[in-house]
Amino acid sequence: MAAGQAPQNAGEYISHHLTNLRVGEGFWTFHIDTILMGWFTGLLGLGAFYLIARGATSGVPGRVQGFIELIVEFVDDTVKGVFPGDRKFLAPLALTIFVWVFMMNLMDLLPIDWVATATGATGLSYWKPVPTTDLNTTFAMSLTIFLLTIFFSFKAKGAGGFAHELFTAPFGNNPLLWIPNLALNIIEYVAKPVSLAMRLFGNMYAGELIFMLLGVMGTLAALSFGGMLAGAAAGLLYWAWAVFHILIILLQAFIFMVLSCVYIAMAHEHH
To answer: Which of 31, 47, 101, 122 fits as disulfide partner to 20, beta carbons 3.0 to 4.6 Å?
Structure first.
């Protein structure tokens, strides 16, 4: 669809908004909108924390500083409940995950037609503003957590201890149980990043799709009395869903952060 060309029906409307801005072919296809929006939201969150920390005072904090301190303490207490050991690495990682995922999810509250109009005016035919509705983003983050769990497993148990655990947990060290133990552990290791990525992607994708369905009602409503009523109802439902969606955005960021911490904490455990 050319830039600025309006969708003619509901199918075209939804398909247009679900299409990424891509370059390359096959495996080397890059979703430019996902990459740029991921960097933008990350820098936005980092910049906000930096500016607030730079202006922080040791006396009675202002509202914004107090809010940021509340977030930091909340994340630190959450990590402490999951992993009572040294949190010098895990607490900053958890804060980064929570803020970044929240900022990426927050883009879902931007009205999709406004985004399409703005990007279309610059000559871009497609632009998905929510990075977490792209499996590339959620799997990249979950695979990073997966690699960290492997790293900390080796660090805590050594190569020998890690291999021993693969073949002896959870059923015991009887040689007849080595294969079942290995198969179960492989399934567990694979299931963690897959479930972590799919949970975030599925919830955010479903939320975005509901916004699109409501947008279809408003954008494609006929210019009649019934059509105007449908458009008005769609507008009210759109903003009502946006208010409720704020809870989903926060919850998904929290769940991704907690599960990431749990998986890394489990890597330190000996069986």
So the answer is: 31
Quick one: what percent of the chain has pLDDT higher than 70? 91
142 belongs to the catalytic site: no
Phi, then psi, of 31 in degrees rounded to 5? -90, 100
How many other C-beta atoms lie within 10 A of the C-beta of residue 248? 16
174 is catalytic: no
Is 9 annotated as catalytic? Answer: no
The answer to the question of residue 247 being in a domain is yes
In a domain, 1, yes or no: no
Question: For residue 94, how many other CB atoms are within 10 A of its CB?
Answer: 23
Catalytic residue among 174, 195, 224, 260: 195
CB 241 within 8 A of CB 140: no
**pLDDT at residue 271, rounded to an integer:** 61
**Number of structural domains, the chain?**
1
What is the reported pTM? 0.89
Tens-place pLDDT, residues 207-262: 999 888 887 776 655 555 566 676 677 778 878 888 898 999 999 999 999 999 99
